[in-house]
Amino acid sequence: MSEQRTPLVEMKNISISFGGIHAVDNASVDLYPGEVVALLGHNGAGKSTLIKILSGAYKRDGGEILINGEAADINNPRDAKKYGIETIYQTLAVADNVDAAANLYLGRELRTPWGTLDDVAMEAKAREVMGRLNPNFQRFKEPVKALSGGQRQSVAIARAILFDARILIMDEPTAALGPQETAQVGELIKQLKREGIGIFLISHDIHDVFDLADRVSVMKNGQVVGHARTEDVTKDEVLGMIILGKVPEKAIPGPGAMQTA
Amino acid sequence: MADTIQTTQLNRARSATEHPVKRFFRATEIDTRLLGMVGALLIIWIGFQIMTGGLFLTPRNLWNLTVQTSSVAIMATGMVLVIVTRNIDLSVGSVLGFCGMIMGVLQAQILPQYLGLDSSLTWIVTLACGILIGAAIGALHGSIIAFLNVPSFIVTLGGLLVWRGATWFVTSGQTVAPMNPTFRLMGGGTEGSIGATASWIVGIIACLAIVGAIINSRKQRKRFGFPRRPIWAEYFLSILSCALVLLAVWVSTIYYWPVNIARKYAEANAIAWPEGGLQISHGIAIPVLMAIAVGIVMTFISTRLRFGRYVFALGGNPEAAELAGIKTRWVTIRIFMLMGILCAIAAAISTARLNAATNAQGELDELYTIAAAVIGGTSLAGGVGTIAGAMIGALVMQSLQSGMVLLGIDSPFQRIVVGVVLVLAVWADTVYRARAK
After folding, report:
1. CB–CB of A11/A27 below 8 Å?
2. Any idea what the CATH number is for the domain that residue A204 is in?
3. pLDDT per residue as tens digits for the range A101-133
4. What would the pLDDT profile of B391-400 be if each residue is shown by its tens digit?
5. Overall number of domains in chain A
6. What is the pTM of this model?
7. Cα B415 to chain center, whole Å?
8. Which residues from B are below 8 Å from A135, CB to CB?
9. Identity of the residue in B7, B304, B316 whose CB atom sits nearest the CB atom of A117
10. What was the ipTM of the complex prediction?
11. Which of A164, A187, A210 is the last residue of a domain?
């Protein structure tokens, strides 16, 4: 159904290497509006690296990125944000020593007409967004360091929502969370999806993401093993793709697929 | 709506079960760390007062103490930002020396040729040049750190040697003196104080500003419906801060001019010498006013401006700051430029006070500045520190030295004490932080 539309993001033939090691080798993935694509693979399969190219943290050696069908020039995180790409990192990229509102607006602070920080307005907006996301959250005045992993993750997600992201990248979003908070994030992803946001979910644990994703793209040793719609494949088949690089019938094989005669 | 009501009740329930002292601190939002430091300062003061038999807490000694503190206090405010971003600046003493020497040569040898000997423009041109040079040196250090990725420890260790050597080269080691009379006002002393009337005016303006700030912040929080401090806490804070300001002003006004200077002044202005002697108040010293102004500006920069927010975010998590799109290198350069500017201001004060620019000016100041910032609660691990804390830290260091001088303790032993206190202060802070978690 969605194949006729222009993809929101298309990463074509992306390559990057660090000191002679091909971390990502000729990888292509795409993402449509309102779709959740899970990017799966072992630790070190290159999925985080691939996605960091999209979010501007790394600069690609080769390949191109199309946003809404147009070539995008992404060289740093600021460029990525211009295209509406927001990232939630597995390392919980928040500044520990400042409060939630400061983190939400980090890099894009609201300012008063005099050019000073408008902390009150930022706190008001932070209370509003956090209230939608995590109504129990009350610790607005404390440094983020004092918060639990889940609370910090909700700060990171709120940060992305606050700026009307069109493309959301979530790198192991639930790795640091408890079961209840994981369910919360799941709900949130469904909500964002309804709003037409495209989401890349990155995980090495298939159980985290299989039910949330519309499609999976599997990577192994820096190459794409293949793509599949989650309705067409079983978890076991996807596991086969992750572990062996074996592509099931209904999936589209990529350059990293196991060569079977 | 229901949520807010519930949480207010929750808060109320929590505060009812709390210990009254705890509740007091929570209501007033007083920083307990800062309070602890003020407490330590008071203990030091009272201790010396007893040991010196009443020599320490005299208007004269307190006035001198503040004047002696101002130079290091000014640099310590910048050092806070440097250390918060996990850097260090070992070159501040040498940069102070170099800027001081340039300013000395400028006003004593170069500017008189163009502006005449006692031009009132001399001091401002000199200070402006000094600040420009300080900023340029800071920008150079910052660029090397940010773009060439040389650790700040090494860059500024190099700077320590380079600028000390450069200071020598400016005059081949000669001391430059005397300074321009207007410039000298920045050094304090009898002339360099603003007198009683002006001091009271400054004090009253400060009180109005404090009350205004408290009212404004309450209004702002009301506008957005945030939890506010209880009204008694607002009154308490306003009255306490105003009382402290007025007490400080009062102390500065009961320190009178020395008799001979007052006598000369009376003769010069044809005032009859009264029976009990002429009592002219010093009032607040100009360098102290400068230090306070720097403290206010730096606090404003670090808490109210985007730059300050970036400095702290960068110190807390450099990777997150970078990913948030902050131009971290540019922030680093600006921090070091600021540090250079503050060194130049401190240099103006210290050359003016000495009435000469010498080779050795500012030697060891880098260590006192770092110590002041660290005693003031700046964490070497980055991300934590306050301007006010660093300034109190500078006052603590100077109080120790001044007290030991009054006690007649030898200078080698003074250093031992200062060193031990530094280590003890950081240890106490570590314990406090571990408990606060």
Report:
1. yes
2. 3.40.50.300
3. 898 888 888 888 888 898 888 988 888 888 877
4. 999 999 999 9
5. 2
6. 0.84
7. 21
8. 3
9. B304
10. 0.74
11. A164
